[in-house]
Write a structure and sequence with these properties.
By secondary structure, the protein is mainly α. Helix content is 75%, strand content 0%. It contains 16 helices and no strands. Helix 3 crosses helix 6, helix 9 runs parallel beside helix 14 and helix 10 runs parallel beside helix 12.
Length: 397
């Protein structure tokens, strides 16, 4: 099959989210299986953030040596395999260790796919980053929609997550097999890749933007189903409870997939600022919702609000010339991607000791800081250089 390079990248993002989303949609069942509180569950999930932090710090040189295809095979298929065994594990400690290993692979996946996407943007003079991350969100949306229905039927968590892993293996091997490493951006840093990647002063505003986006995403993905279970005096049906995650991920995916023309017209700064303002309104709606339908609207607004913000920060980091793109992307991901996995224990602690509604008010100061940091983004889209090759066609047969 002749598949365009950017479509292969989209597939990798989609499959990673598809397998992770299948597990996250069963968080209430995993909590019951492990017999732990919300706070204990959050501390268990932190294993993935620790693994991601280590990987994002040290894996950039290894990724450069392995290349895009080998790294994608290891990380996409490896994470799916680890998620599939979690429902079978007998204790929270075993789940923590398994998530730590998955985090090591997830951090490498984050660097590999974002750097490849940025190189393809330079090679063809077109924006792919929002749609690449939109594929991530689309994967969550589909798996959340399926998860809501699957939970209603009573299918076991073990079978559900195992079937998701099987889909990832079948589609992933097909899509990744023909992947090649894109050429470096012209006029970018071409020196040696440092062994360790850490944020520098110039990258801090972009990190703050990413932190705001990922804290919203973590709150929406990890705790939405438990919020719908616990926030109202009258329990909601499992399908309605699953709709919170479905709407969040669905609206996030739709916005990311359609954001590139908006960014081209209004610029990264105005786009990111407006989206984060909308997320703030959504957080207030979820925290104060008097009935389920109001909270569902709030989760949809949160999904829109955090949609294109992180991809815009990634593009800005990859285009910096002070260090290799992989290092800047890794350093940004080191801070923001870890926040995505730190959100569960932080918000779980608030939910356990105050109320789960209060968890969604905690994100507001971070969103405000992200809005202020949006000043570091450009105001206009960068015109494509002349003489670029045409975008590859994508026949699938």
């Amino acid at each position: 099959m002749k598949i365009a390079p950017h479509i292969r990248i989209y597939a990798c993002f989609f499959l990673f989210a598809f397998s992770l989303g299948a597990l996250l949609s069963r968080m209430p069942d995993l909590q019951t299986h492990l017999q732990v509180t919300e706070g204990q569950l959050g501390l268990t999930l932190i294993g993935m953030s620790i693994g991601s932090l280590i990987s994002l710090t040290i894996s950039a040189p290894l990724i450069e040596r392995l290349g895009a295809r080998t790294t994608a095979l290891i990380t996409v298929l490896g994470t799916a395999s680890l998620y599939a065994i979690i429902p079978w594990l007998p204790s929270a400690v075993a789940v923590f260790i398994t998530l730590f290993c998955a985090g090591l692979l997830a951090g490498a996946l984050e660097i590999n796919l974002n750097v490849e996407t940025d190189r393809l943007e330079a090679q063809y003079g077109r924006r792919y980053m929002n749609r690449a991350h939109g594929s991530w969100s689309l994967g969550f949306f589909i798996t959340a929609l399926l998860g809501a229905g699957v939970r209603q039927t009573g299918m076991s968590m073990e079978l559900h997550v195992g079937l998701a892993a099987a889909v990832v293996f079948i589609v992933g091997i097909t899509m990744i097999a023909g992947m090649t490493t894109a050429p470096h951006r012209p006029n970018m840093h071409t020196g040696d890749t440092p062994r360790f990647a850490f944020p520098n002063l110039g990258l801090l505003p972009l990190c703050m933007i990413g932190i705001a986006a990922f804290l919203i995403e973590g709150a929406g993905i990890d705790w939405s189903t438990i919020y719908m279970r616990d926030a109202f005096a009258t329990p909601v049906e499992p399908f309605v409870g699953g709709l919170a995650l479905t709407l969040f991920s669905g609206f996030m995916a739709a916005t990311r997939l359609s954001a590139d023309p908006i960014v081209e017209r209004f610029g990264p700064r105005a786009t990111a600022t407006t989206l984060l303002m909308l997320a703030a309104v959504g957080a207030v709606a979820v925290a104060t919702a008097p009935m389920p339908w109001v909270s569902l609207v709030g989760f949809a607004m949160l999904g829109i609000g955090c949609s294109a913000v992180y991809p815009l920060a990634v593009s800005a980091a990859a285009q910096r010339t002070d260090r290799p793109s992989s290092v800047n992307v890794a350093a940004l991901g080191q801070v923001t991607f870890v926040v995505f996995f730190l959100a569960p224990p932080l918000l779980g602690f608030v939910a356990e000791h105050l109320h789960i509604r209060t968890s969604y008010l905690v994100v507001l100061p971070v969103i405000v800081a992200g809005i202020i940091a949006c000043r570091s983004l450009g105001t206009k889209a960068v015109a494509a250089p002349a003489g670029l090759p045409p975008e590859p066609a994508t026949p699938l047969g």
